[in-house]
Amino acid sequence: MNIKLPTEVRHILTTLEAAGFEAFVVGGCVRDMLRGITPKDWDVTTNALPHQVKSLFSRTFDTGIKHGTITVLQNRQPFEVTTYRVDGTYLDARRPESVTYTADIEDDLSRRDFTMNAIAYNPACGFSDPFDGRVDIKRKIIRCVGDPTQRFGEDALRMLRAIRFAGTLGFTIEADTLNAISAQKENLVRISAERVREELTRLLCGAYSQAIALLESTGLMPYVLQSRTYEGNLAETIRQIEKSPADEHLRLSLFFSRFESVEKVLRALRFDNKSVQAICLYVRLLPVPIPADRYAIKKYLYQMPAAYAQLFFENLLTLQEITQVSDPAHIARLRQISRNIHESCECYTLRSLAVNGKDLAALGIPPGKAMGDTLKSLLDAVMRDPTLNTKPTLLSRI
Fold first, then answer.
1. Measured between alpha carbons, how far is residue 190 from residues 64, 115, 152, 359 in Å?
2. Exposed e or buried b for every residue in 257-284, given b needs 16+ CB within 10 A?
3. CA 257 to CA 237: how far, in whole Å?
4. Inter-axis angle of helices 273-285 and 309-322, to 10 degrees?
5. Distance CA 113, CA 125 (A)
6. What kind and span of H or E run contains 238?
7. By the 8 A CB rule, do 88 and 100 touch?
8. What does DSSP assign to residue 231?
9. Please, which residues bridge with residue 141 across strands?
10. Is residue 95 within 8 Å of 155, Cβ to Cβ?
11. Rounded CA gap, 34 and 25, in Å?
12. How far apart are CA 140 and CA 10, in angstroms?
């Protein structure tokens, strides 16, 4: 198989080899190449020690020196170069307490999670694939390297990664690997909420949404949801997610649409404030039919983030169409009206009102509730009748 490597990666490999070392690209980038997909990231493994790697390249960073990883910059692009290693004891079910360097590439591959990620490649000597990862990729199988109980005992996040790979690659999890996930599900409590959130989001945005059901069948769901059960019909949710664009906020909104305390679970999973606000607003507005009325639509737009209210409203309509809150003809009419409002630059925010707080202060209205209520009253009038949005007209109404 002819595999094309970027010039920068070839330079790293040949530089290490010219100095008398072995070097391979390894892991996910090899898996993606074998699937005919251009990798986003390239990782290199070598028998050169970290200080030897640093001596061969002009720009490096000690990004993971404790575990033998150096980042090498080539053409302003970062590439991780890691020394062959054997991991020590995993005390926190996430990372080894120590590593031991080794001269054997197969020792290094044997510590990895899944066979499809335990393949190394070098243009001169071909593949190092001691666990038949290429066969599993061809068969679309996710299988642990060695004993799955040991692999998941070392790093509990691997259980969630297996399900995420099933959702993003469309692969099937091999029976022993799947059984080991169910048997060790409790270990997921030792993984940070941030890492769980990242894997959940990537799973929900995957092309193979049926894999989401594995969270329930393996018993991982309560651990993913931070000691909560799933609220709603998961099978119906999966069917809806399959119809949704692969947008994080949209799919998360569908996933959490039946939760009574959606903000609490989002906060528990350490979502950022912008995501929490967006998802909670989608979930709140999702089940409410919107009348095909200009004023009503502007009231909805007013509730949405001003910087992208139009996009937000379009997304809400997409969610309502998917969940069949309204029929397609009504949704199409709402889209047409909202776009016309946008194209006509009609006012539905205080920022686009023809008067502001300074104008009201000049009339003797003090800052505070009185000023706020006055501005909102004027905005409501303008949303009903756009021709009122001139400074003289609004000042005369005051």
1. 22, 24, 12, 57
2. bbbeebbebbebbebeeebbebbbbbbe
3. 9
4. 50
5. 24
6. helix 234-243
7. yes
8. P
9. 172
10. yes
11. 12
12. 28
Which pLDDT does position 307 carry in this prediction? 87
Task: Give residue for tokens 């997610």.
Answer: 241
pLDDT 10s digits, 233-251 = 999 999 999 999 999 999 9
Beta partners for residue 121, in sequence order: 25, 127
DSSP string, 44-93: EEESS-HHHHHHH-SSEEEEEGGGTEEEEEETTEEEEEEE-EEE--BSSS
What tokens appear for 61 in the block? 């960073």
75: its two tokens: 């053409």
Q: Which residue has the tokens 């001269």?
A: 103
Q: Say if CB 252 and CB 226 are below 8 A apart.
A: no
Nearest Cα to 119, choosing from 16, 39, 29, 10?
29
Residues of the chain with pLDDT > 90: what percent?
92
Task: Report yes or no: 285 and 291 within 8 Å, Cβ to Cβ.
Answer: no
Query: In the structure encoding, which two tokens stand for residue 262, read together?
Result: 């959606």
At 306 the pLDDT is 86
Specify the DSSP class assigned to residue 212: G
3-state secondary structure (DSSP) of residue 261:
coil
pLDDT at residue 97 is higher than 80: no
Quick one: DSSP state of residue 202? Answer: H
pTM: 0.90
